Amino acid sequence: MGTTDDLNAEVNKIIKEPWTTTDGRVVPETENIELGNKGVNLDVACLYADLAESTSLVNAYGATFAANVYKCYLNCACRIIRSQEGVITAFDGDRVMAVFIGNTKCTAAVRAALAINHAVSQIINPALKAFYKENLRDFQVRHSVGIDTSKVMAARTGIRGANDLVWVGRSANYAAKLCNLREGNYATWITGDVYDRMADNVKAAADGAKSMWEERRWNAQGGMRVFGSFFYWGL
Questions:
Q1: In the predicted structure, residue 205 carries a pLDDT above the cut 90
Q2: Which domain holds residue 119?
Q3: Among 22, 41, 56, 209, which is least packed, fewest CB within 10 Å?
């Protein structure tokens, strides 16, 4: 453990060292960014996929069942994210973060979110019920995916031998917070900026007659426009 003098020295070094940033065209790997005050700027759509009520899941059904649910959810989410050319950037317990870049980043991120909802409702829940049968009672996996788009800076944090990238910018924060909007059976939440930038084919249902999204106001963020959806994208 570092002494007070060591920690004071490190904190002051970090604060006083100027930042050097570059504009990126690809999502960087951890080793591609130096440990000092170096950063890479990217224009991204950030996605967070999060299981709901994971604490009560463990309490009610035990660790091994909860681990099965975690693994099924994260495995499906990661495969879907990669199929839409997203890059997985972090795991945090029962949630995964990913970023999408390029001209169609918002459309790809939204398509991934809707496909994750398909996996939960049409693959994971039926498989769990088929295997555990009456032991599951009324249980079903619930989840939420949040997406925002903005410029972010990727920087390397931690110490040598124990470090990772941190993503600093609005979309990383808002995507995570959108997962906490629990309203009805909406499983996907996106900001108005994402909605305005995504393609029409992820706005309307297959017949084009009905929007897949309901507009809401995010009071915690000053009445910001957000959109919720319970639709899913078939795989």
A1: no
A2: 19-229
A3: 209
